Amino acid sequence: MGILILGIAIASMDEIFQYFAGGRTATWKDVCLDGAGVVAGIVMWRIGKEMGNLLRK
Predict the structure, then answer these.
(1) In the chain, which ranges are continuous DSSP H helix?
(2) Distance of alpha carbon 10 from alpha carbon 14, whole angstroms
(3) What is the Cα Rg of the chain in Å?
(4) pLDDT in tens, 7-35
(5) Using CA atoms, how far apart are residues 9 and 37, in angstroms rounded to an integer?
(6) pLDDT tens, 32-49?
(7) 30 class by beta-carbon count within 10 Å (0-12 exposed, 13-18 middle, 19+ buried)
């Protein structure tokens, strides 16, 4: 859960920085998409971990 919160916090900070950069826009949609990417990464990591455990047995 902590990794998800950290990922969303970093995505939010990135969007805040984009707001102040010229020619870039900051949207909540981007934060949600980044959060979905964090969730997908966590799921893939857990699947890989479980597969590794099964192969070792």
Answers:
(1) 2-20, 28-56
(2) 6
(3) 16
(4) 999 999 999 988 888 788 888 999 999 99
(5) 13
(6) 999 999 999 999 999 999
(7) middle
Instruction: Say if residues 37 and 14 touch (Cβ distance below 8 Å).
Output: no
Q: How many CB atoms lie within 10 A of CB 10?
A: 13
Q: Which residues contact 3 (CB under 8 A, 6 or more apart)?
A: 38, 42
Among 11, 6, 9, smallest CA distance to 30 is for 11
Instruction: Return d(Cα 3, Cα 8) in angstroms, integer.
Output: 9
Which DSSP letter does residue 21 get? S
pTM, whole model, 2 decimals? Answer: 0.78
Token look-up 């998800």 returns 4
